[in-house]
Amino acid sequence: MADATAGAGGGGGAAVPPPPGPAKGPRRGVTVTRPWVAALFLLPALVLLGALVAYPIVYTVKRSLYDADDSAFVGLKNFGTVFSDHGILTAVRNNVVWVLVAPTVATALGLVFAVLTEKVRWGTAFKLVVFMPMAISMLAAGIIFRLVYEQDPDQGVANAVVVAIHDTFSDSAAYPGARPRPNSDLKPSAGGSFTSQAKAAADTPADLPLVGIPQNKVPSGARDAKPAAPKSGAVTGTVWLDFRPGGTGTPGKIDPGEKALSGVKVQAVKDGKVVASAKTGKDGTYELPADAVGAQLRLPASNFSGKYEGINWLGPSLVTPSIIASYIWMWAGFAMVLIAAGLAGMPRELLEQARVDGANEWQVFRRITVPLLAPVLVVVTVTLMINVLKIFDLVYIIAPGDSQQDANVLALQLYLSSFGGGNNQGVGSAIGVILLLLVLPVMIFNIRRLRKEGRR
Question: Which of these, 29, 165, 365, 441, is most buried using a 10 Å CB contact count?
């Protein structure tokens, strides 16, 4: 007992280690000790992956090497058809435009929205409004924008706005569709105008008869036309509708009951230059100064041009940009949400330090915010690139039949070649293989980028 006490309480005694327990080997996970368990859990996913991804890819590659009815092996002939057909080359060109424009613009707008919504009071509500288009399908968005781009301003919102702005700053034509009476002195000239053959004189009124205006288009308050009195040192005349109901009037003569055309612009032209101009009064008469003597009289096309109908958004030249705009409307909210998440994790002390050092908001945005968000911006842009390579719904729904070929993309061409009248699944499969080859590098880049970010 003494020895034990001394050993325990002595200041110089060394502590006795506890006796060693049973040896413990390295801890083994479930997947090591029971691999069949992991295989059992993975089996449903592997079956679905094989049935829905692997098998279609293999079959599409195989089918692309056979002819239209899958009866003869043709090798790479279908791929040659893809790169020699004019319609398919248009689809390739449009896909290039989509990949370069749509992701870039959507990402840029998402960045602007994400940054600005941090500085406004109702930022969350604004984000909700911008993100709302993501809640609807491509089909619904296509139907919406097909209506937005309607040519008729009474139906299409885009043209309703354009026509309203145009009519605010431009005068509408006084009498659309009017034309000179046949065999009169007025003859068609450049730009849709009408010019007299004889030169104006001061002592003889230069009357300018017009026809082609339906009676229901003549203003209800129009007065009867009045012959203009000659005036020394000036050119006078009358512009009127040379037609009387019943056809009893004399051509080229102002008959009782024939209506004056007020507000018609009359120009005096010498050597191709306008030397004087005037507008007709309520009785149809006009008066030009002495400079008009010896000049030809012209009624410019602005008097007769039809009503402005707006822009042909879905015509051959604008159909692709119009559809891209509808895509950006949908996906800018997606970009904004991802960028806003990256912005929330940004160290704020760097921004405050830059402001303390004298940087303005633009310099903070350009030199600090954008570089720090670069990884997020790359991921968003690449994700949208993958998405636009497969774009189909919007183009198929928005583009009308007469301009669908001008808006064609590879995914739509795949459908048209295989099922939409082409009945050549060999060429359609070749387009599918090309799409796969285009998407794979972008997907690999995106995956590697995400893994690299995850290791940081």
Answer: 365
